[in-house]
Specification:
The chain is an alpha/beta fold. The chain has helices at residues 10-17, 28-33, 38-52, 73-81, 98-103, 112-122, 139-142, 147-154, 170-180, 211-223, 243-256, 263-274, 278-311; strands at 6-8, 22-25, 56-63, 66-69, 91-93, 108-110, 126-128, 158-161, 184-187, 206-208, 229-232. 53% of the residues are buried. The protein binds pseudouridine-5'-monophosphate and manganese (II) ion.
Length: 312
């Protein structure tokens, strides 16, 4: 049964009803994280990557007074086009913003936290993103800490990422994930990845070499009905030397007085500009890789479910 105010695309609903693998995809990265038109191409390429991995993609957003699980191509295009020239007709929605945006009939793109909440509502277990939000640099003064972290603790969804965005304070974000009780597992890596590069210098306690290990970890977590699981894998292409651009972007954001939900989109756009698209290239590559990995995990979980059903 679909919860009220949630609209599930027919293809996604059929897959869920039959226990076939589904991967949820966020839309804030389309409307607020990447420049037009690369954002639309990337969103569609992530859907294609999920399909190539054997799962049905469900890009999530708010439109027409409903939480939509499976945006169609016209809506993805509309969300992407809103990034042109900074026109803001598609809001950036965290988990806490979903109800108001639905009630007021807004169009809104969902962050990792909002997507995790939506996926849990729809019964989707795995989602993919680029990097999660986290503790911003200078958070000791600003208290700017992404709602993604609380959502990871709260909603029972596996989030596949390449770490936290490099614009953030990576060690501080790992401390908060620990405090919130969010399990973190590396997939084919022993270090927590740093989004644009494989190495953050932070060693992980748990790392899985095979998808079956990840599936078993999630089966135990899920059986106990707690929150989410963060799975991190290194980016397929590194974009080293982005740090100088990040420093300039941070200084520019401070000078421009950028605040609240606008901080992350501002920094991502500035870093993209300052690196002449080098960061964009790496960002797109890791988004596709994460969608594929999420699909492979979703398929493994679906096989496990079928075996259980068959054995019961
Ligand atoms: N990762 C990217 N690009 C993005 C984001 C993450 O590679 O645009 C988005 C995600 O939607 C994430 C959000 O949930 O940024 C975090 O925003 P904030 O720091 O305002 O919580
Ligand atoms: Mn913030």
């Amino acid at each position: 049964m679909t919860p009220p105010f949630v609209r599930v695309a027919p293809e996604v609903a059929a897959a869920l009803a039959e226990g076939r693998p589904v991967v949820a995809l966020e839309s804030a990265v389309i409307a607020h994280g990447l420049p037009y038109p690369a954002n639309i191409e990337t969103a569609l390429a992530m859907e294609a990557a999920a399909r190539a991995g054997g799962a049905v993609p469900a890009t999530i957003g708010v439109s027409g007074g409903a939480l939509v699980i499976g945006l169609d191509e016209p809506l993805i295009t509309k969300f992407g086009a809103s990034a042109q020239g900074g026109r803001g007709e598609v809001a950036k929605l965290g988990a806490r913003d979903l109800a108001a945006a639905v009630a007021l009939g807004w169009d809104g793109a969902t962050t990792v936290g909002a997507t995790a909440r939506a996926a849990a509502l729809a019964g989707i277990q795995v989602m993919a993103t680029g990097g999660i939000g986290g503790v911003h640099r200078g958070a000791a003064q600003t208290w700017d800490i992404s709602g993604d972290l609380m959502a990871l603790a709260r909603y029972p969804v596996v989030v596949v990422c390449a770490g936290v965005k490099a614009i953030l304070d990576i060690p501080a974000t790992l401390e908060w994930l620990e405090m919130l009780g969010v399990p973190v597992v590396g997939w084919r890596c022993r270090e927590f990845p740093a989004f644009y590069t494989a190495s953050s210098g932070r060693r992980l306690v748990f790392s899985a070499a095979e998808v079956g290990e990840l599936a078993r970890i999630w089966e135990v977590e899920r059986a106990w009905r707690s929150g989410g699981l963060l799975v991190a894998q290194p980016p397929p292409e590194e974009a080293p030397g982005v740090e100088a651009a990040i420093q300039s972007a941070l200084a520019a954001a401070l000078a421009a007085g950028v605040q609240g939900a606008a901080v992350t989109p501002y920094l991502l756009a500035k870093v993209g500009e300052l690196t002449d698209g080098k960061s964009l290239h790496a960002n797109v590559a890791l988004l596709k890789q994460n969608a594929l990995a999420a699909a492979i995990l979703a398929r493994e979980l679906a096989i496990g479910n079928q075996v259980q059903l068959g054995g019961a």
